[in-house]
Amino acid sequence: MGARVVSTTSVGPEAGLSGAELATRYGLAVAGARPGIVTYTRQLWSYRNFIVTYASSIISASFSKARLGRLWQVLTPLSNAAVYYLIFGVLVGTKRDVPNFITYLCIGIFTFLFTSASAVQGVQSVTKNLAMIRALHFPRATVSLATTWTQLQNFLAAMVVLLAIALATHEPISHTWIYMPPCIALQLMFNTGLGFACARIGAKIPDLKQLAPFVTRTWMYLSGVLYSATKFDANLPGPLATVAKLNPAVVYIDIMRHALLRRFANSPAYAWVWPPMVTWALAIGWAVVALAAGYIYFWRGEEEYGRG
Amino acid sequence: MADFNSDVVTGLTKAVVAELTTETVAADETTTRKREPRPLGAPTVIVENVHVTYRITGAGKTMNNTPSAALKRIMARKSNPTIREVRAVKGVSFTAYQGEAVGLVGSNGSGKSTLLRAIAGLLPVDQGGAIYTMGQPSLLGANAALLPDLSGEQNVIIGLLAMGMTRQRAEELMPGIIEFSGIDEHGEKFSELPMSTYSSGMSARLRFSIAAARMHDVLLVDEALATGDARFRRRSEERVREMLASAGTVFLVSHAVGTIREVCDRSIWLERGVIRMDGPTEEVVDAYEQFMTR
After folding, report:
1. What backbone phi and psi angles, to 5 degrees, belong to B139?
2. pTM listed for this prediction
3. Shortest Cα–Cα distance, B185 to chain A (Å)
4. Which residues face B131 on adjacent strands?
5. Which residues of B touch A44 (CB under 8 A)?
6. Would strands B138-141 and B218-222 be described as parallel, antiparallel, or unpaired?
């Protein structure tokens, strides 16, 4: 090793410069500074491979210790459906008012779980990946996106189960099935925004992880998963019923139900919560607002993740 | 130290040591060394009057952490007594340049790792100080597990993607990285097993190999070389030199001063969060070793 130079600050033309001036001259930036939102979005796009690979790794790792492996991706929604069917279909007897209750119920549960799981997992998405966040530098939004992406995959597996249940209960293959892809896309946008917001709050307040299951359970009972949200009109005072029906989960579940339940399409139990056009407007509105607000909120905390 | 006027440097460093031993370790003491010779290359890391304070939750006595105590605290609107502040780095300033390898020495808890994490942008710096870096520094720590449930190969791919590589490039580089890490050299295909089955030395080697797959403007290595065996250490020291040759800057934290002597030209000795000495490795490390055996 030669006499490489050893120094703290240099002499010559730079001697009198402060750190900040020296940094500007040589194009140095403040360590860990948050980039602007456009740059950030561009960075995020260049990490799309990472997001997809990471998401599928999370899935395979989460099932790696179970003997049945990824079969659980299908078995979990099935078991869920079985439990709710047993309680609300057979024991409580909601079944009587609603034709093809099993499919009706499964649509509600699977669609709702897509959103609630995104929220619950979103809360932990930063805290669970602290080791990697602290070791490597990448846009932190990637871990939140990867988490939502895993939920999409779980939901698509559940959709396969759902379609099988629908066909097994003699629901016809209908042109209304084309409502499903745009509805899922909009719900995905909503979930992504929600996941971003939950990730930042969860990173700041670790207690939220304990609270999240109760919040989502309350939300589920308010979302017309087990019954139709049209019942709000009869049981709640007017303005409150309207607010209750604005619930995004109500909107997405309603679209999915009208896409799939065609055999008794004219049954009063299947009435639209909102008129179809309003329903679609709400679906789009929630998706756009949640995604934009959640993304900006997460981005504003970019410097905080993994610190401390 | 061959052709350079090393006696000037030596003289200066001695002066600094003399000054510091009088226990007047001030935040701005580094400014006294502004007259040192100018190095080649542009600055890559500027650390200016940096203080780092940890706020630690749950550090209080277990007695005060019962549910009833927590409730009382909330009712009385008192702040959480389990939050403690620890000042890990107290007013550190220095500048590192292209092609420079800087060793950080100091006893346990002297703030070395904290300083590296602050340079990497992973810890906030207190008001009044600042750290400027060229590009985004990568921190390589011995305890930074990636994804323990996934195989070594998957970890390599994800690590490379997280460093911003394309999928195709990552897959091309993967076999070479596994080979460099030497984890498959023991007759067992460890690269296909989950990282949780690795020994600490093996996973440290794999992590270093992942990070070293890319050229970094600033690479921060925290004890990651110390865990490997002699053969791997030689290989990784070689790799660090390659990075220096391509105008990178490498920071090395290690308790194995041998590695620092081997790789670094300059060393900084931290003690209790302040710089005790900053100069040519030989002198700093000698003084440090003398201090430790005293």
Report:
1. -105, 130
2. 0.78
3. 26
4. B47
5. none
6. parallel
DSSP helix/strand/coil, B44 = strand
For B29, the closest chain A residue by CA position comes to: A8
DSSP A34: P
Chain B residues within an 8 Å CB radius of A50: 158, 161-162
Give the position of tokens 């950030």: A40
Torsion of CA B101, B102, B106, B112, to 10 degrees: -110
Integer Cα distance of B227 and B149 in angstroms: 21
* Helix H or strand E encompassing B93: strand B84-97
**Average pLDDT value for chain A:** 85
For the stretch A163-190, pLDDT in tens is 988 898 888 888 889 999 999 999 999 9
**β-bridge mates for residue A29, sequence order:** B133
Of the candidates B97, B231, B207, B203, the one whose C-alpha atom is nearest the C-alpha of residue B159 is B207
Closest Cα in chain A, distance from residue B151 (Å): 9
Instruction: Give residue-wise pLDDT tens across range A34-80.
Output: 889 999 999 999 999 899 988 988 888 888 777 887 888 888 888 98
Query: At CA B258, angle to CA B257 and CA B261, rounded to 5?
Result: 85
Name the residue of chain A whose CA is nearest to B119's CA: A31
Tokens of A6: 């050893």
pLDDT (tens digit per residue) in A248-289: 999 999 999 999 988 887 888 888 888 889 999 999 999 999
Interface of A with B in 276-305 (CB under 8 A): 303
CA distance A186 to A193: 11
Contact B139 A131 (CB under 8 A): no
φ, ψ dihedrals at B15, nearest 5°: -60, -45
Tell me the CB-side half-sphere exposure of residue A137, using CA atoms within 13 A.
24
Distance, C-alpha B247 to centroid of its chain: 18
Residues 5-64 of B with CB under 8 A from A: 6, 9, 30-31, 33-40, 42-48, 54-55
- Is ipTM beyond 0.90? no
HSE (CB half, 13 Å, CA atoms) of B223?
15
Taken in order A24, A27, A29, A35, the sign of the CA dihedral is: positive
Kindly provide the residue ranges of all beta strands, DSSP E only, lying in B142-284, ordered along the sequence.
218-222, 249-253, 266-271, 274-280
- Tokens 């931290």 appear where? B270
Q: Is B194 on the interface with A (CB under 8 A)?
A: yes
Strand, helix or coil at A150? helix
Structure tokens at B234: 């030689």
CA–CA separation, B28 and B274 (whole Å): 10
Q: What one-character DSSP code corresponds to residue B151?
A: B
A135 touches chain B (CB under 8 A): yes
Tell me the chain B residues in contact with residue A61 when contact means C-beta distances shorter than 8 Å. Answer: 147, 149-150
Q: Which long-range contacts (CB under 8 A, 24 or more apart) does B16-23 make?
A: B16/B277, B16/B278, B16/B279, B17/B276, B17/B277, B17/B287, B20/B276, B20/B277
